[in-house]
């Protein structure tokens, strides 16, 4: 991924066509002029990254338009109890992303056969996965008290209200339902999270997981496969080692595609069937964008973090 992300910066810095055109001088003296470097946060943006960053909001817009123009009737996916939602989002959640990342990190020969570049890449992917996981945890699980999603809800005037016929006996007896602080605790006691802005946890999880999988698993593997297929290897021993290293990664790539297709479909269904308000759904995506921008585009501008996360 590092080579893929830095290709624009490298072309400019090494006196390629971009820098030559900017200089306006093909003479040796012109070639020796020092060109101002492209900012790292811009050099890391490729067309692929821009396409992926725009794909999920466009999907959400498409689903919202379908819901407004031609509202669909009840279906299997209009129920929160559909299998994909229960297994891959509500209860599976971050487990599938973790399983995919572990499969990627543990792939390849068990002992030896891993180049220094491969080992370095796996280390940086592991660190970026930890960073993305911390962002997921802070938003949806705990952030020095309430998770960020619940902090937003409470600060905008939300709270836990009873739902007739579903409130637990203990909550009914003590009348403490209004004091329940988190959305999970509210639902567990038969209450409803009402009154404030509730950023969609589904949209946050689905888009954050998809961005990580695309940026750190799929794009690098697709790029690596293309480069490998265009290179002819004459030594049979080298071909054998390469084949052994590629086999587990092809499994990872298939697993990654499987997950992003499911996540994309769930993004679409979440908007078609209007779970949360339109603003809350886009608020969920916005929070995932904030984490991705911080980790992938802002952090590299700090030398210490760049050397740790992207070396």
From TrEMBL:
Q: Where in the cell is it found?
A: Endoplasmic reticulum membrane
Instruction: Write down the membrane topology.
Output: Multi-pass membrane protein
Q: Which GO terms describe its cellular component?
A: endoplasmic reticulum membrane
Q: Which domain of life is it from?
A: Eukaryota
A GO BP entry is: lipid droplet organization
- Annotated membrane-spanning segments are 50-73, 93-117, 129-149, 201-219, 255-275, 287-305
Which key words tag this protein in UniProt?
Answer: Endoplasmic reticulum, Hydrolase, Lipid metabolism, Membrane, Transmembrane, Transmembrane helix
| Spans annotated as Disordered | 1-28
Chief location of this protein within or outside the cell: endoplasmic reticulum
GO molecular function: any one?
coenzyme A diphosphatase activity
Pfam entry (one): FIT
Q: Which PANTHER family match?
A: ACYL-COENZYME A DIPHOSPHATASE FITM2
Protein name as annotated: Similar to Saccharomyces cerevisiae YGL126W SCS3 Protein required for inositol prototrophy
Give the organism, scientific name. Geotrichum candidum
């Amino acid at each position: 991924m590092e080579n893929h992300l830095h290709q624009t910066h490298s072309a400019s810095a090494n006196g390629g066509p971009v820098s030559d055109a900017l200089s306006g001088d093909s003479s040796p003296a012109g070639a020796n002029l020092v060109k101002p470097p492209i900012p790292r946060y811009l050099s890391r943006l490729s067309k692929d990254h821009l396409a992926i960053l725009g794909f999920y909001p466009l999907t959400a817009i498409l689903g919202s338009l379908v819901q407004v123009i031609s509202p669909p009737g009840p279906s299997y996916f209009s129920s929160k109890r559909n299998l994909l939602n229960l297994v891959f989002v509500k209860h599976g959640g971050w487990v599938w992303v973790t399983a995919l990342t572990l499969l990627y990190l543990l792939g390849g020969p068990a002992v030896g056969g891993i180049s220094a570049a491969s080992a370095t890449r796996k280390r940086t992917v592991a660190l970026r996965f930890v960073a993305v996981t911390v962002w997921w945890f802070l938003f949806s699980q705990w952030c020095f008290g309430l998770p960020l999603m619940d902090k937003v809800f409470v600060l905008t005037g939300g709270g836990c209200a009873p739902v007739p016929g579903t409130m637990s006996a203990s909550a009914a007896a003590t009348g403490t339902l209004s004091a329940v602080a988190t959305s999970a605790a509210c639902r567990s006691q038969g209450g409803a999270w009402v009154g404030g802005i509730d950023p969609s946890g589904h949209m946050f999880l689905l888009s954050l997981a998809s961005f990580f999988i695309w940026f750190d698993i799929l794009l690098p593997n697709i790029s690596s496969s293309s480069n490998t297929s265009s290179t002819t290897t004459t030594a049979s021993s080298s071909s054998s080692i390469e084949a052994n290293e590629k086999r587990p990664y092809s499994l990872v790539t298939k697993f990654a595609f499987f997950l992003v297709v499911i996540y994309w479909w769930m993004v679409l269904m979440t908007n078609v069937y209007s779970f949360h308000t339109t603003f809350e759904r886009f608020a969920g995506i916005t929070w995932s964008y904030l984490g991705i921008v911080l980790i992938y585009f802002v952090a590299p501008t700090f030398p210490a973090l760049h050397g740790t996360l992207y070396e």
